[in-house]
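Dear colleagues,

For the upcoming journal club I promised to circulate an example of a predicted protein-ligand complex. I picked one with magnesium ion because it came up in last month's discussion. The inputs are reproduced below in full, followed by the predicted structure.
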Amino acid sequence: MAAVLPASTSTQQPPTVKRRSRTAYFLLAPGMGWLAVFFAVPFITLFVTSLQVPVPGQSGRYMPAFDLMNYPEALSAYSEQFIRSFVYAGIATVLALIIAYPLAYFIAFRGGQWKGLLLVLVIAPTFASFLLRTYAWRTILADEGPITSFLNALSVLPQDRILNTGIAVIAGLTYNFLPFMILPLYAALDRMDPRLIEASGDLYAHPATTFRKVVWPLSLPGVVAGTLLTFIPAFGDYINAQLLGSTGDRMIGNAIQINFIQFRDYPIAAALSIMLMALILVIVFVYIRRAGTEELV
Amino acid sequence: MTERRIVEDLHLRDLTKKYGELAAVDDLDLTIPAGSFFALLGASGCGKTTTLRMVAGLEDPSSGTISIGERDITGLRAYKRPVNTVFQSYALFPHMDIFENVAFGLRRRGVKDVKGPVEEMLELVELAPMARRKPTQLSGGQQQRVAVARALINQPDVLLLDEPLGALDLKLRRQMQIELKRIQTEVGITFVHVTHDQEEAMTMADTVAVMNAGRIEQLGHPADIYELPRTVFVANFLGQSNLFAGVKTGTSGELITVESHGQTFGVPLARNSAEGSDMYVGVRPEKMTILDEPDAHKVPDSHNRLTGAVTDVSYTGVSTQYLVNTDWGQDITVFEQNVLVGDRCDVGDRVIVHWAPEHSFGLAR
Ligand SMILES: Nc1ncnc2c1ncn2[C@@H]1O[C@H](COP(=O)(O)OP(=O)(O)O)[C@@H](O)[C@H]1O
Ligand SMILES: [Mg+2]
């Protein structure tokens, strides 16, 4: 083939290819630069900090070292917070999924001309500051508030209150990250051809079976995205635990914050941060692997 | 799969579906004989899909009933109806392979051993080697056959097909028409095939119902409808027709006579569906013969005739298509078989067009 072609063609082609690939690198450069400056550099700084040791006699001052012991030390001191973060974020994620799924389903399939408006309403709360919204929950869940009074009348609250308990923290986490669950779910469901649901019914599937066999599997990308977008920030969150929980409900975010700001124990705080990141990475990795290979039929 | 099932007729009685003021389906009365290949033919928007969806249970009728044999299924939920649908867009489950798509209906009904029937079905639609592929890995024609297989494997009383060949190119469409016809003959299940393609309806169906604005205009064997349309809509929608407005003036033997633009046309009594005296005389273009005016003496005395001038000639190989402007200014179409060589009329020629009265039909005006 090449022999038939005029010689000039074969000598001209390679430069074109090369130029195109160079353009690609050129276009990638800003993104790469951004990552280097705002992710790689802080990460390395954080890692270096996590290995530092105190300067003897001077509290709050640390010097470079290679003290890996900061890690086991931090872990043993705050394992409780790690576990609590996992449990709270996990429960909040499941609750958010249960609340968000029917909502997203309704907007996607029944929203009609109101779809746009309903979606704006979903994200509208995020227009107000995160901190402000969480403060508002202090009022909503207050001891004399209607919700607490009502539930107390039914005697279902283990501590006779909601505010300053784990329940309030989980409620806050669920509420605050709900939009991040709804939007990807909506995107996945809205993409689905409603004819598939009809076809399933036409093929003798009860509506519940249709959900299990058709709707749910096809919405899995949205479920995976939504749960990650909820779980990851909820896992590292500290505002909800700080404003809505008691000292017994502190999460790993609070531990990091307190070590950085209050104790000024930077190596421990850094070690906690690195471990938090690593843990999230492992959880995400395992989760995606499981979700990806799950038998969808 | 090879044994023939005893299925029953599908009855639609006074079936109506209203969307606000619009009656998408208007008081439809229809019996679809068991085991027939039935085509519902009509222009886009005439209510074909709505009719099918009501039969499938995907849409609730505003009024009327649907029954199979004696069994009223009007209120039955879709998943409980002995009816399956081949959707216009196929609606194959994208997350399942071909095998699972086809097995879906059987599994939902608790059939334990699906392997045998599914493989047999894939054999029937000639897709056995594709069993483990996903729908997106198949061509349009193959997806279409999967959609048919997925519905057919359930051996429904009625199979509904909503323009199943609409997305295919012409060649594949012709191929699939033959294929579908073969499958229907093989399984003996009632097929209700919706299409806007009159040629498709005529070549495939035993019975064609021509639908217009939510109503059935005419129903019958394709040849019967073509030879004897009963309404102006059918005369023009199914093939081409020349229609001459006229007034009935009398009866002579088996013929009625109609005055039209100064001509007198004969129409067989039995082929007139006009009740009053205002009517159209219709005739199909290929039933007409065209002659140069000097050859007028060759026209048999009994024939209907008219004169005019040729305004267009298109030679299509098998036949020649003439456009003739009659003396009263109406454009008519005449198809002439190219049996003789060199015996054609030219543009501008004065001509006589004639036809046997038996080929005329009368329509209400
Ligand atoms: N869900 C609906 N809401 C309002 N009008 C509809 C709906 N479905 C169909 N129609 C109207 O009903 C008429 C018949 O539609 P359809 O049955 O889809 O026609 P066809 O399949 O013959 O093209 C059309 O005028 C269409 O606009
Ligand atoms: Mg349609």
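Two points we might discuss: Strands of chain A lie at 53-54, 62-63. Residues 1-12 of chain A have pLDDT under 50 and may be disordered.

See you all on Thursday,
B. R.
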